Amino acid sequence: TIRLDLSKMEPSSQFVSLRYECCSFIALMNCVICGYQGLVDGGENICSASWESVSMMLQLGGTVIGSARCKDFQTREGRMKAACNLVKLGITNLCVIGGDGSLTGANEFRTEWSGLLADLVRAGKISAEEAKKSSHLNIVGMVGSIDNDFCGTDMTIGTDSALHRIIEVVDAITTTAQSHQRTFILEVMGRHCGYLALVSALACGADWVFIPEMPPDEGWEDHLCRRLMDQRSRGSRLNVIIVAEGAISRDGKPITSDQIKKLVTDRLGFDTRTTILGHVQRGGTPSAFDRILGSRMGVEAVMALLEATPDTPACVVSLSGNQAVRLPLMECVQVTKDVTAAMAQGKFEDAIKLRGRSFENNWNTYKLLAHINPPDVKSNINVAVMNIGAPCAGMNAAVRSAVKMGIIQGHSMLAVHDGFDGLAHGQIEPITWTSVSGWTGIGGSMLGTKRTLPGKMMEEVSLNIAKYNIHALVIIGGFEAYVGGLELVQAREKYEEVCIPIVVIPATVSNNVPGSDFSIGADTALNTITSTCDRIKQSAAGTKRRVFIVETMGGYCGYLATMAGLAAGADAAYIFEEKFTIRDLEANVEHLLGKMKTTVKRGLILRNENCNSNYTTDFIFSLYSEEGKGVFDCRKNVLGHMQQGGTPTPFDRNFATKMGAKSVLWLTEKLKECYRHGRIFANTPDSACVLGMKKRALNFQPLADLKADTDFEHRIPKTQWWLKIRPIMKILAKYDIKLDTYEHANLEHVVNKTGSLKK
Fold this sequence. Notes:
By secondary structure, this protein is of the alpha/beta class. Helix content is about 40%, strand content about 15%. The strands form six sheets. Strands 12, 13, 14, 15, 16, 17, 24 and 25 form an eight-stranded mixed β-sheet that branches. A seven-stranded mixed β-sheet has the order 3-2-1-4-5-10-11, sandwiched between helices. A four-stranded parallel β-sheet has the order 7-8-6-9, sandwiched between helices. Pathway: Carbohydrate degradation; glycolysis; D-glyceraldehyde 3-phosphate and glycerone phosphate from D-glucose: step 3/4.
């Protein structure tokens, strides 16, 4: 089996972790230096790879084995040379990491494989016996592209890291823009795909975004100027415009950042600056999301190769929601080409749909928040927004989105300070469009948040709901938000005032809210832990023979410990959900003792704070220190509340923005259903729901229905999806485990919404 990086683009920030996982599956692995060129040239360009040789790649950006454009491979003669090199080495499996061009080339290589071997036999370059042993070639692709321009996957490897670079720049620019009351135009990459521009616009609350899939309507210049003036009239001190480098007008002409700057300066007289981010977006350390995505995709790719037969079509490993899926490679390539064709034909709505559900949802949310003005006629509906539980990054982005969407719907929005305490004591005030401007990038909770539940003060809560005429409630928070919502539902029998629609948006670093696979804030905490572990590993690698024990947050939920273990390359992660004994600890120590005999003389152990009441962090530290005496020494770190702080990651900002907007749209519809005899009365189970991501979609699930799947004692859901990917961490740490413990994907098919492809 061969590991091959074939990107025609510059390297993205997360090709490297893809090399990490396969070497622990198969004893003999090879990597190709410089992509197809290395395949054609052969020799030292195809070299063996070992577990040790890739063990420090995880946190590196770019591509360690190199990537190069190759004209030779585009000719049959070049492909014959590549085939000869593979046959001589007995290689019949290719794992291809690249864009649609590279993947198309790989499929063509596979299709003509038999013919290439026949030509090589006739030319006397390989024997008939060698041809027989290499009679078929298996291909599995993974998409590495910061543009996220490949259809069939929600996210390509490298995209999230690029978004991190963009948002870092946007946050820095926002400071100077506010100080000087300026308009900033940022040009980001995306020659044929506007994903980076679109998500960046959502994540920073940009006033306008230009993307190639949906050019602005005729007369956009007037519309843009009106919008910028409107924002200034509301008190905003800055304007942000995001432009994809491939942005075009309806007639196909380029829209450039300089053109927009001239428009804003000449018509409005605003102090305007332009920043072109360029290749900054490709560099830097890969994000936690990209490391985990790369690791999962790499494992799935090897599983697909191991299961492949001569009749198996070339597939690409993709991400759908939180699920790894396998899709026929050429179906995905065809849909990607269909997007380009749709744009060329002016079928821009089709282009948006062809990009996939995730892209379409992002576009619809952006349109609602950025291009629709609040109506002149009010709905006479009051919607209250509150934060519950511990603070986390992204809470403010969810509040901002909910408030703006509520105002767009004609509602009056109310802010409840300090959670249920504030609701009980009347800490309630109107919150306006301008009030939440700039909240997207602020960590913590601007509204204030407490863990107090409403049960013991339901009388006061119900009185204030009536006093302030609250018709619907948005609760943003962690497990306390879910339990508090349940208590409100249970109180409906006694207090008619709480018979209002309620929606709970999960927001907690612990990711332990029933009804959702992901919570707002967890990604930011995960990146904080991962970056800290990177520094710790660097220290351990420098001093040699050192093992670090790191304690993470999460309550009884092991999500952070597990995913940080994957992202940081940990040797073990102890969690409450997966019971362990002293014999397991002993086995882990023995594993590290063996590891110290290799060239990788460092260790990293993660421990969830409540994984075991007896095997505490101090106990594990003492045990490892004693048993490793003379071979390695130990250090411990308790990360603490730093995991709750910091500015939100692009993922958390985008996720929170979509969740906040969707929750208010749902409440608006639910209020119409619950309007009876001149008043709001909601007492059915489906009028109080958790809005959560489940597998591949955002769903509303009644609070009461989730009780059966909730462990209230330990404050975790009984079913947690991420437990199924824990075996990956053990595989990558070189433990000898059975592969059938990992749930892998089956081959699916691309669903094309425009009907140009069959399901």
